[in-house]
Amino acid sequence: MTRETLFKFMQHILRFEEISLKDLPLVGGKNASLGEMYQKLGKKGIAVPNGFAVTAEAYRYFLSATGVAEKIKSILKDLNTNDLRSLAEKGESIRRVIMAAEFPEDLKTDIVAAYLKLARESKRTEPDVAVRSSATAEDLPDASFAGQQESYLNVRGEHEVLLTVKKCMASLFTDRAISYRADKKFDYAKIALSVGIQLMVRSDLACSGVMFSIHTESGFKDSVVINASYGLGEYVVKGVVTPDEYLVFKPGLKKGFQSIIGKEIGSKTRKLIYATGGRATTDAEVPIIERHKFVLTDEEILQLAKWGCVIEEHYQRPMDMEWAKDGNTGKIFIVQARPETVESRSNPEVIEEYILNSSSKVLAIGAAVGKKIGAGVAKVINNISQAADFQPGQILITTMTDPDWEPIMKKAAGIVTDAGGRTCHAAIVSRELGLPCVVGTGNGTTVVRDGQEVTISGASGEVGKVYEGKLPFQIKRTNIKNLPRPKKTKIMMNVGDPEAAFMQSFIPNDGVGLAREEFIIANFIKIHPMALINYATLKPELKKQIDDITAAYEDKTQFYIDKLAYGIGRIAAAFYPKDVIVRLSDFKTNEYANLIGGKDYEPAEDNPMIGWRGASRYYDPAYLPAFKMECAAFLKARRDMGLKNIKIMVPFCRTITEAEKVLSVMSECGLKRGKDALEVYVMCEIPSNVILADKFCKLFDGFSIGSNDLTQLTLGVDRDSRLVSHLYDENNEAVKILLSQVIKTAHQYKRKVGICGQAPSDFPDFAQFLVKQGIDSLSLTPDTVIATTLKIAKAE
After folding, report:
1. How far is CA 794 from CA 40, 135, 375, 478, 755, in A?
2. Is the CATH number of domain 3-200 3.90.1300.10?
3. 539 phi, psi to nearest 5 deg
4. Residues ≥6 apart with Cβ < 8 Å to 216
5. How far is it, in rounded angstroms, from Cα 113 to Cα 203?
6. How many CB atoms lie within 10 A of CB 191?
7. Which of 61, 233, 248, 316 is disulfide-compatible with 305, CB 3.0–4.6 A?
8. Count of CB atoms within 10 A of residue 555's CB?
């Protein structure tokens, strides 16, 4: 131990400017991290509020000098964390002993002197401070200790600071903290508590939230996730509110692009603010107009994301951070940073897939935490006082959780909450415990009956579902470390759901051969683009329906552009820098008519499958304004987000003249083929695409075969008709001749040709036929990629 370290070790108080990560044994994880950032990252523009730490030595001195240490040892000698009633009694006894003891005079003097110095430096008489616990075993890379000890906000004056420091020390022995340490095999006697006293950021007048430098649900390392809500940050962490969620693509951000690839508005119904009349904080309702706004501007989102990247690079690991915006100054501060403890430790060489084998009535929907499935008997608990009634293996259904709930959470088979977002307490603990969890359902405690059998699932993406009954499911684990890769044929994927893209990107692949817009439009936009363009003239009842979805946007067309760009951008980011070929919208008229407001803009066709679809819409005056919005979304994703790996594909393009018209419109909208390395493909799904392949080669950079439509139009079979379905066959000789012909012609003109139809996914022999013809790539559904990869590698 150096002389400097020895001197520090003996001190009761250390200021942030004196603390770094190496001081963790002296000041705990939280304070060590704050000191590290205050000292070293302030130079890089990251703002951290000033403060000081009451050290672990001060804690030990207090317990020893007052005889409290021996009393704690006696109380805990026969600890059994599975006996919740005994655990509660022991915890209460220890806290009472600590609160009854008086600080030694010299320690009391040191704490007050440090607070008064902070007051002078901040030029405030009695500065409002946050008083936070910082245990010496806290915020380690493999244990988060999330919320185990207490934090107190808006603490003012010498007396209140001293009292609150003691409350923090007592919180080292809350029921949940005792239980958590015992389960993690930490010896309580070897753990001490430091207390951080930090200047408050007046986020009660603005907003605050949580930020991760890794996507917490998938482990995708190239995304920053930011949650934001109004008021003090406690409500986000504790899951009282469902916050906004923003996603930022790190590689694009580092190159200077505005790489926001997702923005979801949260309900944000309540906020925690400063109180008057002796109380520190109070609950308040958020006005309706503010609920419907994004909490942060794009500039603030990007600033926070940049800070998240800097912090991650400094710590050399994915990080979990808390931030706050001061309502008086408008400045943003980082108020905590700790290692992310779950997804950053997962094994990237093993793909684990939970598969639901059947379905049933969906009782509730919320945000999925992780991708697991769990089943059991539901136990609805509205108050922690009912904890003793909870049995191991039950599904916990509650409004929200806080650290007091952890002794029963660890016994659960899954967790469902009414409130909260993906960074709330229930979500963090569920990830750490490896439990399936659905948060923010809004109505879980009312629609699920106590004692009812349920299944909860996060396996279908970011939307978590609570099903009626115990449903069968399986877990499929695949080790991809030594998976052979084909040398000649690229194995790409068909992707439609942006929320599943991060997880799907871990499957060995060569990019995305078909990204569909239809899923984005139907599930995230839901409104016909022409209805948004003509919003001002719509009927009041239709306007209200649209307003409910687009409340954050005054400009309704911008809603369409942004939502489409975020969906496209998220898929492109997931597979970056590999090629992502995005097909322009290819709804049929009957499908467009099903969108909100769609019936007013779509004709009734007898056979929409071969009607007004694909390229024929894009230059038609009746749809041209909508197509220009689509082009604006692509421009935003490629130019603003920096996702130049996006390639555009034109579907159902019948003639050369039609192709020229579409390319001309795209060029007018800033999407000129060849500019900024933009490649434009055409779907090969009509016999004319094959017959005139040499002419299409002069206009496009490649082909993607749509085997479904090509088979339909070659054989004259309506693939939606059951009466002639027995004639529908991709292996028909006529279809195969056309496939061979277009591959040969494309290669003569040095054009790429792939296939994105369903046939290679369903029929391995068909895939092997295409490989023999020299096809450049196969684009498959994600669930068939690994099996087909093995077969193609063998065939080669």
Report:
1. 54, 55, 40, 19, 19
2. no
3. -70, 150
4. 225, 340, 342, 343, 422, 423, 427, 431
5. 27
6. 18
7. 248
8. 12
The per-residue pLDDT for 2 is 56
Which of the four pLDDT bands, split at 50, 70 and 90, describes residue 9?
A: low
Take residue 434 and report the two structure tokens written for it: 């490896």
Residue 7: pLDDT over 70: no
Q: What SS3 state is found at 391?
A: coil
Name 712's Cβ contacts closer than 8 Å, sequence gap at least 6.
Answer: 609, 718, 719, 728
- CATH number of the 350-478 domain: 3.50.30.10
Q: Is 747 a catalytic residue?
A: no
Taking the C-alpha atoms of residue 527 and residue 549, their distance in angstroms, rounded to an integer, is: 9
Q: What is the CATH number of domain 204-331?
A: 3.30.470.20
CA distance 676 to 668: 15
Q: Cα 533 to chain center, whole Å?
A: 31
pLDDT tens-digit readout, 533-562: 999 999 999 999 999 999 999 999 999 999
Taking the C-alpha atoms of residue 108 and residue 13, their distance in angstroms, rounded to an integer, is 11
Secondary element (H or E) of residue 298: helix 298-315
Q: Which amino acid is at 665?
A: V
H or E element that contains 211: strand 207-212
Check: CB of residue 744 under 8 Å from CB of residue 765: no
Indicate which residue of 309, 425, 653, 684 is catalytic. 425
- Tokens in use for 258? 């505005």
Domain-wise residue ranges, the chain:
3-200, 204-331, 350-478, 483-795
Confidence check: pLDDT of 8 > 70:
no
Reported as a pLDDT band with limits 50, 70 and 90, residue 236 is: very high
* CB neighbours of residue 77 within 10 Å: 8
Across the chain, what does the average pLDDT equal?
Answer: 91
Among 118, 116, 133, 117, which residue's Cα sits nearest to residue 59?
133
Residue 148 above 70 pLDDT? no
Q: What is the CATH number of domain 483-795?
A: 3.20.20.60
Query: For residue 668, how many other CB atoms are within 10 A of its CB?
Result: 11
Q: Are strands 373-380 and 395-398 parallel, antiparallel or unpaired?
A: parallel
Tell me, yes or no, if 684 is annotated catalytic: no
CB atoms within 10 A of CB 452: 17
Among the residue ranges 124-133, 143-152, 477-486, 522-531, the one predicted with the least confidence is: 143-152
Mean of pLDDT values over 308-336 = 97
Return d(Cα 704, Cα 731) in angstroms, integer: 18
Q: What angle do CA 125, 127, 128 make, to 5 degrees?
A: 150
What is the rounded average pLDDT of the residues 442-460? 93
5 phi and psi angles, rounded to 5 deg: -65, -40
- Other C-beta atoms within 10 Å of 462: how many? 20
**Active-site residue, selected from the candidate residues 168, 309, 631, 756:** 756
Residue with tokens 């004196």: 18
| Residue 385: partners with Cβ closer than 8 Å, 6 or more residues away | none
For 528, how many CA atoms within 13 A lie in the half-sphere containing its CB? 25
State the CB neighbour count (10 A cutoff) for residue 245.
20
pLDDT attached to residue 373? 94
Cα separation, 651 vs 684, in Å, equals: 8
User: Which CA distances in Å does 733 have to 715, 729, 769, 772?
Assistant: 10, 9, 12, 15
**Tokens of residue 792, six digits:** 């193609």
pLDDT at 439: 92
